[in-house]
Amino acid sequence: MPSIATFSAPSANRQHSSHPPMVHLRDVVAHVRHLSEEGELPLFVWTLGLPQRVLYHLLDTCNLPTDPLGTMESAEFEQIKQLVPDAYHDLRRMLFQHRTRLIDTTHADYLSRTVAAACFGSRQLWEDLGVASEGEFASFMATFFTPLSVRHKHCRHWKQQLFTELHTLQHRATSSVSIPDLLLKCLLMRQ
C-alpha cells in the first residue's frame, strides 16, 4: 500500500509518460535537511523543530540515515533546537491548519514542518523543497494543502504568499475585540 505522503502529479500528456513524477515525504525531508547541513538553509531546519526522539522516528520511518542524530548528545541537539524562530512554528501551525483533511495527521505535520522549514531558504519554495518543477509543486500543494492551493491557484511566489497570509492571520488575531471589550463599549455608548 503506498504511503499517503506520496502523490502523483497530474500529467498533461499521460501517454508520453509511463511514470508520472512522484514526491515523497522522504525526499522533501532529506532535501531540506541536506540543504541545512550544506548551509543553504538555516541550521535549525535540520531538526524540523522536533524533539530528538521524534525526529529520529521520522528519519527511521522514512528510511533516512539516523547516524548523526543517534550519536549526538541531547544537549547539542537542544542547542540547535533553541535556534528555531517563532515564525517557523507559526508558519508550521498555519500550514497544518490548512492541510488537506484526508491526509494522515502525522504525515501532514511532517509535511507542514518541512514546507515551513524550506520557506527560510533563498530560492523558490519548490526548489528549496527539492521538487522538480513549479508544476509538480502546484500538484504537491493541491494534494497536501488544498485550501491554500485553491486560494492561491496562480501563485508563483509561495514563500512571500505564505508569510503574507501568516501576517494577515496574526493581525486579525491581535486586532480582534473581546466580548468584555464589546460589552464595555456598548455600555459606554448608551450613556
From TrEMBL:
Query: What name does this protein carry?
Result: Nitrogen fixation protein NifQ
Q: Which Pfam families match?
A: NifQ (PF04891)
Q: Where is this region: Disordered?
A: 1-20
Q: Which GO terms describe its biological process?
A: nitrogen fixation
Q: Where is the composition biased (Polar residues)?
A: 1-15
Molecular functions (GO terms): molybdenum ion binding
Instruction: Report TM segments.
Output: none
Upper taxonomic lineage: Bacteria, Pseudomonadati, Pseudomonadota, Betaproteobacteria, Rhodocyclales
